[in-house]
């Protein structure tokens, strides 16, 4: 067997190997991308439910605020201000959740790995940001019920408890807002806050696509 024949055989083997590797990569890409989309489908349902509940909650609070304003007294300022703050934050969350639903739908229809990875990163980032904002509403849930009776008949112990609870919730919400970032993702408190399926679905989807990158580097 001469050198020319050997070279032709090796060239044929190389072409077959390249085709085989290309086919394997395409199959792995399709499988992992499909897994990523499947992992996100329950998340889409969660977001839709969150939007519906958020709208109902905002409408209920809006009605209560209107009723309070129709017979406004000094003591009702606590409820009105607290409720308005919660409504504003809830509406902001609703808008973000709607955008996330659209983003998940785009991911489901996307055929490009790089584009899917970019959109998943955006989804992860917006999840962190809206969670930070939602925690800012926590202190207002400790003040909306302050009323005339508490001022007229409340004891010192009651007010000390009230101020303590509100202060703790305020400090906690500000601390979470300032520290909830991806660089703290390995911290226990971060994992506790983001231990729900809302976060883990995105993480799983991103991990599936990372396996494609790992295959490319081999």
Description:
This protein is mainly alpha-helical and 218 residues long. It has one domain. The protein has 7 helices and no strands. It has helices at 3-70, 77-109, 113-135, 148-153, 156-179, 188-193, 197-217. The longest helix is centred in the N-terminal third of the chain and has 68 residues, at 3-70. The mean pLDDT is 80.
* Total beta strands: 0
Radius of gyration: 27 Å
Order of helices and strands: HHHHHHH
DSSP helical segment count: 7
Largest sheet properties = none
SS strand fraction = under 5%
User: What overall form do the CA principal axes indicate?
Assistant: elongated
- The poorly predicted ranges are none
Coarse structural class: mainly alpha
Portion of residues within helices: over 70%
Topology:
Layout: H1 3-70, H2 77-109, H3 113-135, H4 148-153, H5 156-179, H6 188-193, H7 197-217
Helix pairs in contact: 1-2, 1-7, 2-3, 3-5, 3-7
């Amino acid at each position: 067997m001469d050198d020319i024949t050997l070279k032709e055989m090796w060239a044929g083997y190389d072409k077959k190997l390249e085709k085989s590797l290309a086919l394997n990569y395409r199959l792995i890409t399709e499988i992992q991308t499909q897994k990523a989309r499947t992992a996100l489908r329950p998340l889409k349902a969660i977001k839709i439910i969150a939007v519906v509940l958020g709208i109902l909650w905002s409408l209920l609070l809006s009605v209560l605020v209107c009723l309070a304003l129709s017979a406004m007294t000094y003591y009702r300022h606590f409820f009105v201000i607290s409720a308005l703050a919660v409504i504003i934050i809830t509406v902001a969350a609703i808008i973000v959740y709607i955008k996330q639903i659209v983003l998940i739908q785009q991911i489901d229809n996307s055929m490009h790995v790089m584009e899917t990875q970019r959109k998943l990163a955006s989804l992860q980032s917006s999840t962190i940001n809206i969670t930070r904002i939602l925690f800012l509403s926590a202190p207002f849930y400790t003040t909306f019920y302050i009323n005339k009776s508490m001022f007229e008949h409340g004891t010192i112990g009651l007010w000390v408890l009230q101020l303590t609870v509100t202060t703790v919730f305020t400090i906690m919400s500000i601390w979470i807002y300032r520290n909830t970032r991806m660089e703290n993702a390995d911290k226990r408190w971060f994992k506790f806050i983001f231990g729900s399926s809302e976060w883990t679905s995105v993480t799983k989807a991103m991990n599936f696509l990372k396996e494609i990158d790992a295959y490319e580097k081999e």
